[in-house]
Specification:
elongated; alpha/beta; 28 helices; Spore Coat Polysaccharide Biosynthesis Protein SpsA, Chain A; nine-stranded mixed sheet; eight-stranded mixed sheet; 19 strands; 45% helix
């Protein structure tokens, strides 16, 4: 009788099968039986197994049931196995040379029914093999081995992964319990593994990495996640039923519920398209959570804080808010499984690049402002000008004529095609408080240059065509000084040009008047959340009076390539220790007629929202925020993504490629890929015209397969 029977299911695995089988036949433990179950392969898998069998009598090839389930194929091997212990290995993974010798020796020494080890995640695209801790969470297991399942208690199922291939199972134990693998296409080993863990008498483990789990293999079952997307629910239901059948459900109910929630959240991370994600989210909230007994518990019923927090977000946030917000929660599983996540989740890849250093958003203490001396500028105003020769003088005068404060105006001419530049040059020659800067090629660099030229204690912005209400600025500055504010937001009234249509005016009139915010100073992140929840966050930089030292602390102030007011104002709010919103309307905002959207403008808008979404996402990956503030940032990220998508699907392929070429970083390329997918889906929908859904579905399926490669 061999010491270990190794069971290897294979279906068209010729690419990796030789390295898999070599890792078994070259084990330092030689007393092996190697059973390869060929489950209907049409490639060279059978030939490869035959060659190994001819060279090594320990290798046998058995026909599988041809059902496309590795679980059913394993059952064939399980019925034929004669070894003392059972080992399972997938045809694209491979053992370390001492895997079976070390784990078998540990199992025998501890007389254990199950022995567990850790493994490395091997990315075949990069050939990196990274050790991961989540297959064996030692904090949940006793230090002394062996131990009973009761010793792990409520954490039993969270302590290890559902796969069978990093474990040895005593053959007599498996046959005595009658456990089998489920015939599911995926998640077919979870029932076997967790049922075995609960019914075993003695468990043991080795804190060593003894095999490699391959990712990035598009041919594996992991490469087709959209088929049977809820198979894992069947696995969990079967585990719950089995616990009840053997009289263990009451003992392990909490362990099961924690496992079920962990499975729900993990599988919500796995869809490879936004459509599949929304379907999964709807399934969870519309029945699966209740079916699995996850709802109705106190928060401390769940063992890990991230499980509690993410369940609350799943129930309280919109699907897309949850999609983006969850990435700000540094969960153990998300960090540990980064390699697999990056290989399989397009949405997640949009938001995360590598492992960024954590930047704690702890707003700096408000700077003590020097008193305004006779020569000290109180407010520097960046006046952004483009093709406004008939309007710019009124805007300038509205600033320069504010009583009770000392101001300067830095005029940034943004490539005006009219005589705006000449008007600004004349005014700067006449008034020392006016300076002119001509924008360069990059808009962000030009804005940064204008800010660097400012000397005032506070900084504000104004658009040419808008103007400040007479006599209002001094009161805002006095209040900011008295309350020691770093950031003071204010409101705006609107005035319409004669040619503005009624629909535009209805949308704009009163848009910049906000009344639902509490008075008094708040930390900037809290004010951002309050404004957003009230529907009153406005991204315009010209609605803020900011301490210049706070602005200078943003490095860079405007991110190069992303001259976005939203990105700028969000970063300011997150960095401010004392911020407030005043209902005072300083600005009179001019609403003009919108010119027709040209293809070049559509491309510019798509580029703008692409860079905004990307940089906000990178910000979200760097900062630490409370859950409410993280939810707000997540919602803003999605808003930018939604706008990027709305514009991207209306531009041509060449324009899309130009945007994709802006940034070669992995997260940028993943976002571009997601937008290209949306563009292709929109094209097919327009082309299908609502007819022949079968053809459309097939085309969409082919597209997704192509995008995954």
């Amino acid at each position: 009788m061999p010491a270990v029977s190794v069971i290897v299911p294979v279906h068209n695995g010729a690419k990796h099968l030789p390295s898999c089988l070599r890792s078994i036949v070259e084990q330092t433990l030689t007393d092996l039986e190697i059973l390869v179950i060929d489950d209907g392969s049409t490639d060279d898998s059978a030939k490869i197994v035959a060659e190994f069998a001819a060279a090594d009598p320990r290798v046998s090839c058995l026909p599988g049931p041809g059902l496309g389930s590795a679980g059913e194929a394993r059952n064939v091997g399980l019925d034929r196995a004669t070894g003392d212990y059972l080992s399972f290995l997938d045809a694209d993974d491979f053992f370390a040379p001492t895997m079976l010798a070390e784990l078998h020796a540990k199992a025998v020494a501890d007389d254990a029914d199950i022995a567990i080890c850790k493994f490395r995640v091997y990315d075949e695209r990069t050939e990196d093999a990274n050790p991961v801790s989540w297959p064996l969470r030692l904090e949940y297991f006793p230090e002394k081995t062996p131990f009973s399942p009761d010793a792990a208690g409520d954490a039993l199922f969270l302590a290890t992964n559902p796969a069978a291939w990093n474990k040895l199972f005593r053959t007599d134990f498996v046959r005595r319990t009658g456990l089998r693998f489920q015939g599911l296409r995926r998640t077919n080993d979870a029932f076997f593994t967790y049922s075995a863990l609960s019914q075993a008498n003695r468990l043991t483990y080795l804190d060593e990495y003894l095999l490699s789990y391959r990712t990035g293999n598009a041919a594996s079952l992991r490469g087709s996640r959209d088929q049977q997307p809820l198979a894992w629910v069947d696995a969990l239901v079967a585990i719950r039923t089995e616990l009840g059948r053997v009289g263990l459900f009451e003992k392990f109910e909490r362990a099961f519920t924690n496992l079920a929630l962990d499975f729900c959240l993990a599988n919500l991370r796995r869809p490879t398209s936004s459509e599949a994600y929304l379907t999964m989210h709807s399934a969870l909230t519309d029945g699966v959570l209740a079916k699995l007994g996850i709802l109705g518990h106190q928060t401390d019923y769940f063992l890990r804080a991230e499980l509690r927090d993410q369940l609350a977000d799943l129930l309280n946030l919109t699907p897309m808010e949850f999609l983006f917000t969850r990435l700000n929660l540094a969960t153990d599983q998300l960090n540990a499984a980064r390699a697999e996540v990056r290989a399989n989740l397009r949405e997640l890849d949009v938001l995360r690049q590598g492992e960024p250093a954590t930047e704690v958003i702890a707003p700096a203490a408000a700077a003590t402002k020097a008193s305004a001396g006779a020569d000290r500028v109180d407010v520097s105003v960046i006046l952004r000008v483009r093709d406004a020769e008939t309007l710019v003088a009124e805007s300038l005068d509205s600033v320069l004529n504010q009583p009770g404060v000392k101001v300067e105006v830095i005029c940034l001419d943004q490539h005006s095609a009219d005589l705006s530049g000449r008007v600004l040059a004349q005014r700067s020659a006449e008034d020392a408080r006016v300076r002119l800067i001509t924008a360069g090629v990059d808009a962000s660099a030009s804005l940064n240059a204008a800010i660097a030229a400012a000397t005032g204690r506070y900084l504000s912005f104004l658009e040419a065509g808008d103007r400040w209400q007479p006599g209002v600025l001094a009161g805002l500055v006095a209040h900011a000084d008295a309350a020691e504010l770093q950031l003071l937001g204010f409101d705006a009234d609107t005035v319409a040009d004669p040619e503005v249509d009624a629909a535009t005016w209805r949308r704009e009139n009163g848009h910049y008047r906000r009344t639902a915010t509490a008075g008094g100073a708040l930390p900037g992140p809290a004010l951002l959340t309050q404004l957003h929840r009230a529907g009153h966050y406005r991204p315009q930089a010209w609605l803020l009076l900011a301490d210049r030292e706070l602005v200078a602390g943003l490095e860079p102030t405007f991110v190069i390539g992303a001259p976005s007011d939203m990105l700028f104002t969000v970063r300011l709010l997150l960095a401010a220790s004392r911020a407030e919103h005043s209902p005072t309307a300083l600005v009179l905002h001019r609403v003009g007629a919108k010119p027709p959207v040209t293809p070049s403008q559509r491309e510019a808008d798509a580029r703008h929202y692409f860079s905004t979404c990307l940089e906000l996402s990178r910000l979200g990956a760097r900062v630490q925020l409370g859950r409410a503030e993280a939810a707000t940032l997540g919602a803003l990220i999605f808003e930018a993504y939604r706008n990027a998508r709305a514009n991207f699907i209306r531009i041509n392929v060449d324009a899309g490629n130009r945007i994709a070429g802006l940034d070669s970083a992995p997260d940028a390329q993943a976002l571009a890929l997601l937008l290209k997918q949306a563009h292709q889906e929109a094209q097919y929908k327009r082309g299908a015209g609502g007819s022949r859904p079968g053809l459309y579905g097939r085309l969409k399926h082919k597209l997704r397969n192509a995008l995954r490669r």
